[in-house]
Amino acid sequence: xxxxxxxxxxxxxxxxxxxxxxxxxxxxxxxxxxxxxxxxxxxxxxxxxxxxxxxxxxxxxxxxxxxxxxxxxxxxxxxxxxxxxxxxxxxxxxxxxxxxxxxxxxxxxxxxxxxxxxxxxxxxxxxxxxxxxxxxxxxxxxxxxxxxxxxxxxxxxxxxxxxxxxxxxxxxxxxxxxxxxxxxxxxxxxxxxxxxx
Length: 197
Prior knowledge:
Helix content is 30%, strand content 44%. By secondary structure, it is an alpha+beta fold. It has an eight-stranded antiparallel β-barrel. The longest helix is centred in the first third of the chain and has 59 residues, at 3-61.
């Protein structure tokens, strides 16, 4: 092979290497741009959610000066029972919540009548509604602030004096019913924030 051909071949190889490098850069830049856009969208969504939460907390739900002890996610149902109202009409009325409490994809406790919360460490609290605000839609149960009125056990919940029920989804069921005493389970979810002053 002549020197001219060797030189020409080297130029072709060098050109091909540059093309491959440019393609690699493009392959890196496109996902980076996509991830950057996704990050901006996520930041916007987080900001919007934070704004919505702040607006809800402004309606008496905030617990000024309180420290967050724990936050869990609840998945379950609001149990309704068919009962007569003050006018003697049969209506669906809330009987109790039944929910699993979840943290980091693990079941850490339960939520039940009282309303009460119990964690796997044996600590348990009961609350009383102190303030409420509407959920995000008419199908979502209200956002609540509850004062703790009873404690049991020495675990995480032993120092908690306030509970916030936030980010509610579902759980509303209303209207006339036919048979007194009959039950209905309406699925819902919510975040529970346990606080201490």
